[in-house]
Amino acid sequence: MARPSIRTRAAEQRAQQEAAHRVRRLRTVTGRNGSSCEVDGRWLVNFCGNDYLGLSQHFSINSALQDGAARNGYGSTGSPLVCGRHAAHVALERAIAEWLDYPRALLFDSGYVANLAVLQAFLGEGDLCVQDRLDHASLIDGARLSGAMLRRYPHGDAEGALRQLRSSVDGAAMVATDGVFSMDGDIAPLKQLALVSRVQHATFYVDDAHGIGVVGDEGRGCVAAAKLGPAEVPLQLVTLGKALGGYGAVVVGDAGLIEHLVQAARGFVYSTAPPPALAVASLQAVKMARSDHWRRERLQSLIARFREKMQQLGFDLPESATPIQPVPCGDERSALAMSAELEEEGFWVAAIRPPTVPDSGSRLRVTLSALHSNAEVNALVQALARARDNLPAR
Ligand SMILES: *Cc1c(COP(=O)(O)O)cnc(C)c1O
User: Fold this and answer.
1) Does 241 sit in the ligand 1 pocket, CB within 6 Å?
2) Which atom of ligand 1 is nearest to the CA of 179?
3) Each residue's pLDDT tens digit, 86-135
4) Is residue 322 lining ligand 1, measured as CB closer than 6 Å?
5) N or C: the chain end with fewer CB closer than 10 Å?
6) Is the CB of 274 under 6 A from ligand 1?
7) Torsion sign across C-alpha atoms 61, 64, 68, 69
8) What is the pLDDT of residues 276-325, one digit of tens each?
9) Taking 70 as the threshold, does the pLDDT of residue 11 lie above it?
10) Ligand 1 atom nearest 210 alpha carbon
11) What class, spelled out in words, does domain 21-53+293-389 have in CATH?
């Protein structure tokens, strides 16, 4: 019997992706300046980044990074339980725990790793993980890695979550959801999901990658905005790569659960601790995200402006009060054509296609940043309308 060759199989997959207009291209940025990027030799206004508060290049964070490196060097030299844990990591964790009013926090290399690590550490075979259909890939992958049974409910449907929880009563159960949905920008029904979790004795885990810094008082995110806390949401993911403008992730939770992660989360135990200088920089970013209210206010005004102007030009936008503003395109080819035309006009808006979004959910995922000017947003809306009107009838 001939074994299948991974090379042949990869080539077949590639051919299928090409036929379906789903091949993605790696783009390289050669310069950044405020809301603009130089991409493949041309400057574009970036409307697809996650730098919602505009902190990714802030001079005071840059200088914290430089100071951190001058004092502590480049690398951490080990995993946290061996020798890699540094006071800068602890200071960052304390600041985030205090900001969100949680007892304890733990730093991970990235949000992707943190989600794998949390689900793997708390769930195993015979357990149940109930998730929103549109949850981030890292939550899905974490459930798979854990060996628990993964059951998904229709988007935003807390009753659907309840039905899934009732379907299995034996093992431990966890409900996991994005706070702000990464491709849609809407917010999960956290109060209802918290209630369902409590009634069903399930642990409720919220991944607020896109809500932290942006949503609610002092940017404390969706959980705090829903007037929930550690009692209802014992574990929460905060990422440092979105509104905080940097890289890494922190899980906040009650002290016992976080201590279990220290001992059992493989993505924490078996990976090199992040560079201390990065934690010094992130601490400065947290301080600014917390206190610079004007960045959130500016963002809200741009969101209102974008939605109003789009609706005036006949776009039917899905509900979203966050900087993630999807513009539905239907099929892959339309999304690609609109993205290419926007690029011609000087705007960078990536086309998001399956499998990142469901079939026929192809879209332009427009994201706004406090750094965008009113004029840039106005010009983007005009360019979007022209790109839509130039689509061939299909
Ligand atoms: C971006 C994202 C992650 C992954 O975080 P990284 O730090 O980029 O690895 C996890 N969950 C959600 C909802 C995200 O949007």
Assistant:
1) yes
2) 13
3) 999 999 999 999 999 999 999 999 999 999 999 999 999 999 999 999 99
4) no
5) N
6) no
7) positive
8) 999 999 999 999 999 999 999 999 999 999 999 999 999 999 999 999 99
9) yes
10) 15
11) alpha beta
Instruction: Report whether the peptide linkage leading into residue 355 is cis, meaning its omega lies within 30 degrees of zero.
Output: yes
pLDDT beyond 70 at 272 = yes
Q: Is the CB of 365 under 6 A from ligand 1?
A: no
Total length of the chain: 394
- Domain boundaries of the chain, sorted by first residue: 21-53+293-389, 59-291
144-177 confidence digits (pLDDT tens): 999 999 999 999 999 999 999 999 878 999 999 9
| pLDDT for the residue 394 | 66
Does 183 contact ligand 1 (Cβ within 6 A)? Answer: no
Is 135's C-beta closer than 6 angstroms to any atom of ligand 1?
A: no
Q: Is the CB of 200 under 6 A from ligand 1?
A: no
Rounded to two decimals, what is the model's pTM? 0.97
pLDDT of residue 235: 98
CB 155 within 8 A of CB 132: yes
Residue 182 in contact with ligand 1 by CB distance below 6 A: yes
CATH number assigned to the domain with residue range 59-291, chosen from the 4 options 3.40.50.1470, 3.40.640.10, 3.10.310.50, 2.60.120.260: 3.40.640.10
At 1, list the tokens: 């019997």
| CA 264/CA 204 separation, integer angstroms | 19
Give the orientation angle of helix 87-100 with respect to helix 276-291, to 10 degrees.
20
Closest ligand 1 atom to the C-alpha of 249?
Answer: 7
- Ligand 1 atom with minimal separation from the 180 CA: 13
